[in-house]
Amino acid sequence: xxxxxxxxxxxxxxxxxxxxxxxxxxxxxxxxxxxxxxxxxxxxxxxxxxxxxxxxxxxxxxxxxxxxxxxxxxxxxxxxxxxxxxxxxxxxxxxxxxxxxxxxxxxxxxxxxxxxxxxxxxxxxxxxxxxxxxxxxxxxxxxxxxxxxxxxxxxxxxxxxxxxxxxxxxxxxxxxxxxxxxxxxxxxxxxxxxxxxxxxxxxxxxxxxxxxxxxxxxxxxxxxxxxxxxxxxxxxxxxxxxxxxxxxxxxxxxxxxxxxxxxxxxxxxxxxxxxxxxxxxxxxxxxxxxxxxx
Length: 294
Known about the structure:
Elements (H helix, E strand, L loop, with lengths): L2 E10 L2 E11 L4 E5 L6 H8 L7 E6 L2 E2 L9 E4 L11 H12 L3 H11 L14 H13 L5 E5 L7 H16 L3 E5 L3 H7 L2 E6 L2 E6 H4 L1 E8 L2 H10 L4 E4 L2 E5 L5 H10 L4 E9 L1 H9 L7
Parallel strand pairs: 3-8, 3-9, 6-7, 7-8
Antiparallel strand pairs: 1-2, 1-4, 4-5, 9-10, 11-13, 11-14, 12-13
Helix pairs in contact: 3-4
């Protein structure tokens, strides 16, 4: 097991922010922690990284209690840029981590090249843009090749090109065996990289696999929806129909295959519209509805 979060409680005064949070990461997946500002996301990440004490509960990382300092050679936590020192260069920050963890200068420079910060590595971070700081923070987080990478808003301040590069990097890291837990407000990017979603609402987690909330539906208007539904059902394609429209959630089936079946039975397609139910839509249903239940 990579990460086990077991019945974590945390209160600030009379306000209980985390109410018995539990979840596990057993594989090198990319898991997103999603919730509005003030929902306790950063609090939970800080507790996992032993920067904040829980009132109750237990955290286990790679089989060890999270209070064991040895595990921090195998994990990394990317925080916001308040951890940077304006009077130090980017290289100074990476060298400090290298000295603590026994990382060579070669590995520091290779990491800088991989992230794309080599061109301004020797400039003081006080002169960095927000995007440059985010890149440096990411380099600091991956320099030790962690088994578990925890990221707090890694896409903050990034332009579209940089966001794409970070997304590709996260996917590469997961393929290479790194488990990733990230919080982000960029719901569109979450859809592109995550395998599981942890929605944090009112101190409680709502856990969902990607397949539970990310679906591609096609709304197809045909001349005879009832007959079309029957024909497609015989082809083992599940549909719903209302009026003159079919609603099909595509999984293994391809759209062209559906069109071929309809054409074979002389069923005329009048219109088609693609609908994607993703993290943003699920977020709206959880946080904007009165009870959070769809």
